[in-house]
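Support reply, case 0932

Customer input (verbatim):
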Amino acid sequence: MTETNGRAVVAKRVDDGHPDTEEIRDLARAAGYTVVGEVTQTRTEDPSLCLGEGKVAELSTLVELEDATTVVFDNRLGPYQTYNLGNELPDGVEVVDRFRLILDIFGQRAQTKKAQLQVELAELRYELPRAEAKASLAKRDERPGFMGLGEYDESRERDIKAQISRINDELERIERTEAHRREQRRESGFDLVALAGYTNAGKSTLLRQLASDLEIDENESLHPDLDATAKSENQLFTTLGTTTRRAEFDRRDVLVTDTVGFVSDLPHWLVESFKSTLSEVYRADLVLLVVDVSDPLEEIREKLVTCHDTLYERNEAPIVTVLNKADLVDEADLKRKREALSALAPAPVIISAKTGENMDELRRRIDDKLPKWRRERLVLPMTDETMSLVSWVHDHAHVEDVEYAEDVILDFEARPSIVEKARAKARELSAAPAE
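Our regenerated output:
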């Protein structure tokens, strides 16, 4: 992304330990900022400034020295802290906290109607407590605009809540449409695989490795949401919505969906705003949990725990852990991490989506974990309608043999639902009067 938002200094406070700014720097760059410096502090939170007064003075000096336009905090700031910090910094310098930054990134990446609604919902949920704070102070102190929070408008809270309700209703309508589309896919014989994991784990690169072709012309009329342009960029939040591609398998028809990536330390209200995106994961036949194995061990462990908490809450499909980016880790480190993570990932598949290493093993694991197919033999009368059924089975199953004699004998393997539909069609043919 081209930097367009100006020059930023990042700031971070932690209660104890060393403040790590790598992720917030990545987030700031993903939002279009040029990061020109940082200020960190280890101490308990100052209720009015987040940082201590001396550290805020240091931050102000650095901002002026670097001619920064924005300070990006890797903390959640209350409305009063944001206002107070603005008073301590040079005129015109904007203060953005972690969650406001994430919303800005989401807003930039939202291209579909669903994604745009989810961003709008998250922004309203972010704004609601601030509107409530304005109302509370104004009522208590009878001073509209107290603490620089803006003019008090008693209808603003009601407006926000009404908009939240409206967007939730619209997202539910979209979700019903998508659920119907998923059911159509299953009825067409497709197995559904979802990619889950943190941003920058390599999910989009893996999707391209699994995809059978860049073009999916034969399915565009049946599956209008299939996207032939899954990007592979070293960038957070490349995938905000979902991207679905047909995957390369010998027998099965498989659709793989790349979903929005997790990011650490998201508040409940933000996760809740994007829960409809996770429905692609919850309703899949198989989930591939993609992990960047080149991350530090403790970071991988924390991410796996968070992902498991999210995925196992409502997900009934099997989950296969995929340790990606093996090309960036030597054998000894890979073995050490695999052993240390055995309780969280007892049988991972280790791959490099970038180089294609071990992709055959991953395809075998996917085939093994997807719903088992059933073998079926149908004996059908020799009619034009039977030829249509044979063609339908070829499109929706793996046909092993077809014998044409007095009757048509059709041997095939398919999902149980496809076998049942084929049986029903065969019964209709057998019951039809002979011409």
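We compared this against your earlier run and they match. Two observations from our side: DSSP finds 14 helices and 13 strands in the chain. Residues 189 and 259 are 22 Å apart (CA to CA). Please reopen the case if you see a mismatch on your end.
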